[in-house]
Amino acid sequence: MEKAVFFDRDGVINKAIVKDGKPYPPSDITQFEWNEKIEEVLDYVKSLGYLAFIFTNQPDVARGAQTKENVESIHKLILSKLSIDEIYCCYHDSGDNCECRKPKPGMLYEAQNKYNIDLGKSFVIGDRWRDIEAGKQAGCKTIFIDYHYDESLKSRPDYVIDRIQEVLYVI
């Protein structure tokens, strides 16, 4: 079986846009800015034999505030620059009651089934409680990047770090 690291997108792969203490995704590629040291972290994870995935909620598409094309153009940029095996994206809003939207672990299970992943030997890295809760429900070890957003952490992570490069000391 394979082992994997699942990265949230906004706030982990790229910088989130923070307004009034709350993180938001870039609306298009012109607002996209890489998170410092993410390439180094991904190279390290891959050197240890982990598969690397992104799993991201993009509900602004369902809300009509974002286009699927803009989200996909950001994903194409990410895939062209980083060693990511696949991007899993939920375009639903919370009212849709889908199985893929975090905090539900549907995207993790989808990757598990496709790539034969042992989730107990895998990690989830995120900057919001939904990321951590999805990882917990799937049985992954969880790493929370604490950017001190103005929101509560509803699920207790296994590790708390302040910067993405601290992953090098956890995995």
Q: Any overview of this molecule?
A:
- There is one protein chain.
- The protein has 171 residues and is of the alpha/beta class.
- The chain has one domain (4-169): 3-Layer(aba) Sandwich (Rossmann fold), CATH 3.40.50.1000.
- The protein is built from five helices and eight strands.
- It has a six-stranded parallel β-sheet with strand order 5-4-1-6-7-8.
- The mean pLDDT is 95.
The total strand number stands at 8
Strand content: 15-25%
How many helices? The count is: 5
Mean pLDDT: 95
What is the terminal-to-terminal distance? 18 Å
Fill in the keyword field for this structure.
171 residues; alpha/beta; six-stranded parallel beta sheet; 5 helices; globular
What can be said about this structure in brief?
By secondary structure, the chain is of the alpha/beta class. 28% of the residues lie in helices and 20% in strands. The mean pLDDT is 95.
Task: Set down the secondary structure blueprint.
Elements (H helix, E strand, L loop, with lengths): L3 E4 L9 E3 L2 E3 L13 H10 L3 E7 L2 H4 L4 H14 L4 E5 L15 H10 L7 E4 L2 H10 L2 E5 L13 E3 L10
Parallel strand pairs: 1-4, 1-6, 4-5, 6-7, 7-8
Antiparallel strand pairs: 2-3
